[in-house]
Amino acid sequence: MKSKLRSTFGATIIELLTVAVIVGVVASMAVPRFQRAYERMQFRSANRDIVSSLRLARSMAITDKIQYGVYFDYDDMTITIFQDLVNPTAFVYDNGDPVVRQDTLADNVQYVFTDVPNNAIMFNPNGSAGFIGGGNITSVGTAEDQYLEHYHNVLRSTGRVRSYDTWDEWAQEHAGDAY
Questions:
Q1: For the chain, N or C: smaller number of CB within 10 Å?
Q2: Exposed/middle/buried for 14, CB within 10 Å: 0-12, 13-18, 19+?
Q3: Is 90 left (phi over 0), alpha (psi -120 to 50) or beta?
Q4: What CATH number is associated with residue 60?
Q5: pTM of the predicted model, to two decimals?
């Protein structure tokens, strides 16, 4: 009798190629979802930066007993935290005001809009906020051709920041408010 020299266990090259093709097809279907998720995370991160900047300015104003402000620059897509020393009663960012920090928003944030005429929100040493307008900040962006938006509101009396994922959520919270 002849003994078998070959084992019946193992995989052929055809089986290995078949598995590689299946893994490749599944991975190619998942990449667009990962891309969209990554862009959404970038947008959320930019909105956390907005809230973080506002809270940091408020905290610094309370700690240092000096008025601090946050300026939103639409053209450069930057957020600037500054000491409001040049003209503290005007609620405006002047060239002589010392800059504490400046952040650039993520690329997929297309614009940031405020309903504050000078695009600056000030925080007083007692923690309250000073601005003309409603103290609302809206950021708009895209992720894989999907429109994204986020809303923030600074409360004038306390300087606290509230964030909303949708316009309906913001509108429901602010129904009846007079600005």
A1: N
A2: exposed
A3: alpha
A4: 3.55.40.10
A5: 0.78
